[in-house]
Amino acid sequence: MDYDLIVVGAGPGGSTAARFAAENGARVLLLEKREKIGYPVRCGEGIAPKWLEFSNIPIDNYWISKKVKGAKIFSPNGSCLVVEDDNLGTEVGLVIDRVKFDQTVADLAVEAGAECRVGVFVKSLIIENNTVKGVEVTSNGVEEKISCNLVIGADGFESQVGRWAGLNTLTKPSDSCGALQYYLTNLNIDPNYCEFYLSKGSKGAYIWSFPKSKTESNVGIGCLMSRVHNPGEIRDLLDDFISNHPDFSKGTSINEMGGGVSLSPPLDKTIRQGVMLVGDAARHIDSITGGGIANACIAGMVAGKVAADSIKSKDYSEEFLEKYEKGWRELMEDRLYHSYVAKTKLSQVSPEMIDTVVATMNRVGVAEPTVQSILSVLDEYHPDILREVGEMI
Ligand SMILES: Cc1cc2nc3c(=O)[nH]c(=O)nc-3n(C[C@H](O)[C@H](O)[C@H](O)COP(=O)(O)OP(=O)(O)OC[C@H]3O[C@@H](n4cnc5c(N)ncnc54)[C@H](O)[C@@H]3O)c2cc1C
């Protein structure tokens, strides 16, 4: 075998998996189709540091653009709930430079002993007698077969590895979000708070601002694909929001990017003989926020360690890889599932109802907007809404 393990995709999930597998003795090849890791950026770049520490990624000023104090959550009528840093979820606390971050995480993998090749497109899995034997790649127009015993698919939202492995990776339109983001400059904003606008406009979109400095911010929109007919509608909604915003309307967009985000629950199954899926490829994304960097790193850490164990035991069976399936589910499944249910309910309630709940949370002083705390507020102050929303957890 050329390698013990091939990791497809050098995003945060793949690089973390490669790192932990290499640290634990595996011969690892990390393959990335892009010429430059992390570029172009398709991300709001918000993250909470505690989850990075959990997956042993040292916090480094090199890739931090801005430390924020918290978030401002705006209900449809414009009321604002301020949430301080300690009480935030997985996506706020730091606004990062994704190119530098992704490259740093890939560097950690290389320092641990993984080999990394960029500009290499993985085009299929080699499977013989139901056993994974390697991957077929194209690089600079040259085709190549590389053998290995294990493959980790960390190839993002549009993952092919899962499909090639025969796993069900389909996402419903009502669980897919179309996203568009502008990098606005020339602003004069408070850079200490991220901002989130709930259920904005006729399509109930979600809008964010992740400030990089007083003058720059990632301002973007996510909208359920089941609610729009074409991507142009998403652009119109964002343009309309920005042109009516007192601060953002003064900015200039110098970069834009679009992409898909899965707001589905995690895949029912993320393994098969010789294959594990990590991060967006496994739908390890928070359905409420669309955030997935930290979850990809956590899943990558678990997958990398299980890969190393599997290699030491020379056991690449699905039964052995169950350790990964169980491992990431223990760490994240409840949280991801609660967010999914909350997202589904949130997309059904009226803007007026969201206004009422945010106003009450402000009045009674709920600092941490978890699903549980929102339910408690509803239970105590709005049992009628709770009945309407139904059982969330
Ligand atoms: C508009 C937008 C805003 C977002 N904002 C945030 C945010 O603020 N905070 C947050 O936490 N998350 C955010 N996310 C989600 C976040 O970007 C992802 O959850 C995260 O990047 C997942 O990491 P990953 O390693 O699983 O996949 P990715 O980062 O997508 O990495 C996958 C890698 O695989 C490579 N690849 C794919 N196919 C192949 C192939 N066949 N061969 C070789 N290489 C391949 C890709 O080039 C890519 O580098 C956002 C997403 C979008 C679209």
From TrEMBL:
Database matches in Gene3D superfamilies: D-Amino Acid Oxidase, subunit A, domain 2, FAD/NAD(P)-binding domain
Domain called Digeranylgeranylglycerophospholipid reductase catalytic: residue spans: 177-261
GO terms, biological process: phospholipid biosynthetic process
Domain of life: Archaea
Parts of the chain that traverse the membrane: none
Keywords of this entry: FAD, Flavoprotein, Lipid biosynthesis, Lipid metabolism, Oxidoreductase, Phospholipid biosynthesis, Phospholipid metabolism
GO molecular function: oxidoreductase activity, acting on the CH-CH group of donors, NAD or NADP as acceptor
Pfam families linked: GGR_cat, NAD_binding_8
Record's protein name: Digeranylgeranylglycerophospholipid reductase catalytic domain-containing protein
Organism this protein belongs to: Marine Group III euryarchaeote CG-Bathy1
